Amino acid sequence: MTHPDAYDVNLSQIARMARVGRAAVVNWRRRHGGLEATGGTEESPLFPRAAAEQWLRDLDKLPEPGPAGTRPPATVAFTGGPTITVYGPELHSPGLPSSGGADYEEFSGHIEPDRPGTGIPWPTASARIEHPGSTPYEVADAHVDISGYGGRMDFLRLTWPAARRRALPTTTETPEAQA
Predict the structure, then answer these.
(1) pLDDT digit string, tens, across residues 96-123
(2) Are strands 137-148 and 124-130 parallel, antiparallel or unpaired?
(3) Nearest Cα to 153, choosing from 77, 54, 85?
């Protein structure tokens, strides 16, 4: 089995590591240098994963994953799949273009690397998200993107049209209370 650090990554994957857009990585390369491509093309260069991670660390652009972060972890329960903990969770509107004109939302954060048998659904999934500081909600048919970049954490991003998010009750009623 190949070690995760042995893989090559492209500019988009490096951007996910730093939790920024691809254009930011392109600008950092122009401004700071120090990250040389070892493959790919001029338009889509490839870099050794370990070198890209170290480059981001040297620029102080690699966020620290894990429970020591400033935001409490969130819980994502996938329909028909696992329930996982997401560290450094964020919910925002990335302003993605869409053919139907709908606004998009995105939930992202760091996760423990996938263990055999846990199987996060892909390429789309429905899930219940309990995100600190917000009302629990469900999303239907979210696009699932998992980026592994070596080290102890992977990065999960769920993206969906805003209309597919539904708020859930914050309290659980007992059968007696419903009667």
Answers:
(1) 554 444 688 888 888 877 654 468 888 9
(2) antiparallel
(3) 85
